[in-house]
Amino acid sequence: MTQHPFDDARITAMGLFTEAFTGLTARASEQLARHGISLVEFEVLIRLARSPQSQLRMTDLAAQTQLTTSGITRVVDRLERTGLVCRQACPTDRRSSFAVLTDAGRARMAEVLPGHLELIEHWFTGLLAPDQLAQMLDALRVVRDAVRPEATSGAARTASECAAR
C-alpha cells in the first residue's frame, strides 16, 4: 500500500511545531498583558537584557526579532516613551544607534520575569526530560541558524566597540 502524500512526517513536524508555538505564544501573551507589555515589547526587552551592556544596535535588534527596521523603530519609540528603553547614538557612525535597557526597564523585567519563567516551566521546558530539552535546544539552533542566520548578529557589539571603530 502506498503512503498518501499528505501523510508525510515533514508535514507532521511542521504542523506540531506550529501548533506548539501558537499555543505557547497565546499563553505568554496573556501573561504579559497582565503586566501591560505586549509579546513583541517583551521580546525586545529580554533581548536587550540578555545582551552585553543591555544594548543592541537598532539594526541588530530588528534582525533578532520578527520586525522590520521601521517596525523595531516603532516598538523602541513606545518603550522609550514609557522609560523602559533609551537610544544612544554611535559616536563614530551617525547612521547607527543603540537601544539600551534603562534601570526602569530592568526593574520591569524583574517584575515580569518570574511569572514568565513559571509559564515556560509549566507549559514547555518542564514537560520535557533534561535530555529531551537539550536535544530540542540543539535542534532549534540548527534550524534557526539555517533560516535566520542574522538572528545572532550584534550580540557582542556594544556602543563602546562602535566608538573604537
From TrEMBL:
SUPFAM superfamilies from the UniProt entry: Winged helix' DNA-binding domain (SSF46785)
Top-level taxon: Bacteria
Sequence ranges assigned to domain HTH marR-type in this UniProt record: 7-145
Single GO biological process annotation from the record: response to stress
GO molecular function: DNA-binding transcription factor activity
Matches recorded under PANTHER family: MARR FAMILY REGULATORY PROTEIN, TRANSCRIPTIONAL REGULATOR, MARR FAMILY
Protein's name according to its UniProt entry: MarR family transcriptional regulator
Protein species of origin: Planosporangium flavigriseum
